[in-house]
């Protein structure tokens, strides 16, 4: 297992996503424990991009429940019809919210959070297994570059679930 993360600190996000994806793949390939792997992935994303909050919510019965994350404490349970996470779960699509104050039903876990991207994670049967949620303290901080870069990481996760 890699003991440290290598990435170009001055590079643009697209480059950094390209640098960290193979390292995440290598990092989790030797470990079968899902929670351990999600914890390290949250740590890698926090270290590489300095995101305000980055983590996972996993489907447990009829809610999304907080799973490994990095950042300030967060709400523990989200109904499927609530928040950006619930919207991504229900629509089964990546959601980019440039200004969370303009998203009806946004759940403000931290008032410093200004923009957000949430991606669904699918299991092998095609059901949504959970979501990856990334929050920024800057408005309009996420673009297609993040959607594509994070999707590559989701695909690595989907290989193990
Ligand atoms: N803002 C999210 C809730 C989770 S926190 O941001 C960590 C939402 O609206 O679903």
Question: Can you walk me through this structure?
Answer:
With 161 residues, the protein is an alpha+beta fold. It has one domain (13-158): GAF domain (Beta-Lactamase, 2-Layer Sandwich), CATH 3.30.450.40. 35% of the residues lie in helices and 24% in strands. The chain contains four helices and six strands; from the N terminus they run H-H-E-E-E-H-E-E-E-H. The chain has helices at residues 13-29, 34-49, 83-91, 144-158; strands spanning 53-60, 63-70, 77-79, 95-97, 115-122, 128-136. A hairpin with a 5-residue loop joins strand 5 (115-122) and strand 6 (128-136). Helix 1 (13-29) runs antiparallel to helix 2 (34-49) and helix 1 (13-29) runs parallel beside helix 4. The radius of gyration is 15 Å and the shape is globular. The mean pLDDT is 95. The protein binds methionine sulfoxide. Methionine sulfoxide (SME) binds at residues 53, 74-75, 78, 83-85, 106-107, 109, 113, 116, 133, 135.
Overview in brief:
With 161 residues, this protein is α+β, with helices and mostly antiparallel strands. The chain has helices at 13-29, 34-49, 83-91, 144-158, and strands spanning 53-60, 63-70, 77-79, 95-97, 115-122, 128-136. Residues 53, 74-75, 78, 83-85, 106-107, 109, 113, 116, 133, 135 line the site of methionine sulfoxide.
